[in-house]
Amino acid sequence: MATPVLFIHGLWLHASSWEPWIQVFSDAGYEPQAPGWPGDGDTVEASRAAPGAIGDHGIDDVVEHFAGLIDRLPSPPILIGHSFGGMIAQKLLGQDRALAAVAIDAAQIKGVLPLPLSALKATLPVFKNPANRHRAVSLTAEQFRFAFANAVDQQESDQLFERWTIPAPGKPLFEAAAANFSPHSPAKVDTGNQTRGPLLLIASGQDNTVPESVTRATLKQYRHSEAVTDIRTFPDRGHSLTIDSGWREVADVSLAWLKDQSL
Question: What is the CATH number of the domain that holds 21?
Fold first, then answer.
């Protein structure tokens, strides 16, 4: 039986942005799928047309949503998440719900302290209005270029923006920002789990939204666990590395790492 793979998108990207990855992982013998978050429409257009359905979903909502999907699978899956999807993948892995996880430019978990200025600027469209905690927020093409596509040219950035972006709930960002002041934060991950499956953290050296320093600080949070925790860095890539013209290299690194783990 083929091993299930669940792809988990982050803020501002639709689940269909994983379509090229699904084909590659299917060709490699896995059984991949990319479900949306609660409230997402079936398409980019449907999601853009109904931002109210997307707003006010927090981290716990998304974790419970994917946990329910996992419970219906024939066997535990491999999780591959980008940005907030990377945080969700780590939470589910820490709960022993997955065989392994690849967290790509993952949003910061509780305990991670670096807060680079570029990350503040990238998330300003949400934080500039406290009411956005309960709303869905869209990015402009200019905001997307800074937050996601700063490492590709303007034309590619605009194409990615038009093809894949959707409104995103503000609540997860507010929850993550307050994580280190809340003992029961939904951004808390069981980093001390000794028996969880292996984890690969992927960092991008040019990422404005989740700078490499955040991913390396995340790695340190796992220092008390003997479970496999690896890191790979793409020095010249930005936050769009899962969807831009260099996506295949990231997918191939993920597949090679899974093979190294005999998965």
Answer: 3.40.50.1820
Q: Under a CB-based contact definition with an 8 Å cutoff, are residues 6 and 82 in contact?
A: no
* Exposed/middle/buried for residue 215 (C-beta within 10 Å: 0-12, 13-18, 19+): buried
Q: How many CB atoms lie within 10 A of CB 97?
A: 22
Within a 10 A sphere around the Cβ of 37, how many other Cβ atoms? 25
Per-residue pLDDT of 135-173, as tens digits, reads 999 999 999 999 999 999 999 999 999 999 999 999 998
Tally of structural domains, the chain: 1
Question: What letter would DSSP give residue 76?
Answer: P
Predicted pLDDT at 114: 67
Q: What is the dihedral of CA 191, 103, 249, 212, to 10 degrees?
A: -70
In this structure, how many other beta carbons lie within 10 angstroms of the beta carbon of residue 24? Answer: 16
Q: Is 159 exposed, middle or buried (0-12, 13-18, 19+ CB in 10 A)?
A: middle
Q: In which region does residue 109 sit, left (phi positive, over 0), alpha (psi from -120 to 50) or beta (all else)?
A: beta
Inter-CA distances, 2 with 64, 81, 185, 220, 237, Å: 24, 20, 35, 33, 31
- Confidence check: pLDDT of 257 > 80: yes
The parent domain of residue 245 ranges over 4-260
Residue 185 has pLDDT above 80, yes or no: yes
Distance, CA of 79 to CA of 92 (rounded, Å): 9
C-alpha to C-alpha distance for 229 and 215, rounded to whole angstroms: 12
